[in-house]
Amino acid sequence: MHKNLHSTTKKALAVFIVIALSMATVVTLSDMYKVKADEEEIKAKREMRKWRNKIEEANKNNQILVKHENTFKQLKDNSVIGDENRLSWVEVVQKTAQSRGMATVKYSISNQVLQEKKSLDKRYKGIDVFKSTMSLDMKFMHEGDLFAMLNALRSHARGLSVVDKCDVELINKSGLEQLSAEMARENMRAYCELSWYTLKKASKV
Length: 205
Description:
Blueprint: H1 2-77, H2 86-99, E1 104-109, E2 113-114, E3 127-140, H3 143-156, E4 160-170, H4 175-179, E5 188-201
Antiparallel strand pairs: 1-3, 2-3, 3-5, 4-5
């Protein structure tokens, strides 16, 4: 009987050990699964944040595009962005001279020059800026004619212009010239230089 009891105890102990090992294995596997699940959750959250940031950035860029779309179109239609429109400049000069009765108006336009990158703001590194210089040599009755010419170019000529300089002087006349009706319309003379700027997408960023 003692022998049978000892055998039963050994069997019970063996079963206990097996069960304990099984439970330990289950607990270990559960811990491993939990760690893996936590890692997957962290990874999923990280991916969600990444995509959320991309979506927010896309929405922001779309809002900026919508906000400035009309401005971009106006600049393009006005030849500030794209190719310069020299014909428009010449037509405004000729029409203004005719309407103001300015008999002597000479003009010339230099070749277009790409501006150096170092002279531009770093924020605009994706843009190429070109400049053409227009020279105006005019004779007119009074300073109002000069202002009319410059205002017409600024308001009606297509492009972005800046008056770099304008030298104005009175025309000295002899007594005979003062009697001439033609010369009476030319009391002043001005030599002006204007810079016309055109913007394009940079060929090299």
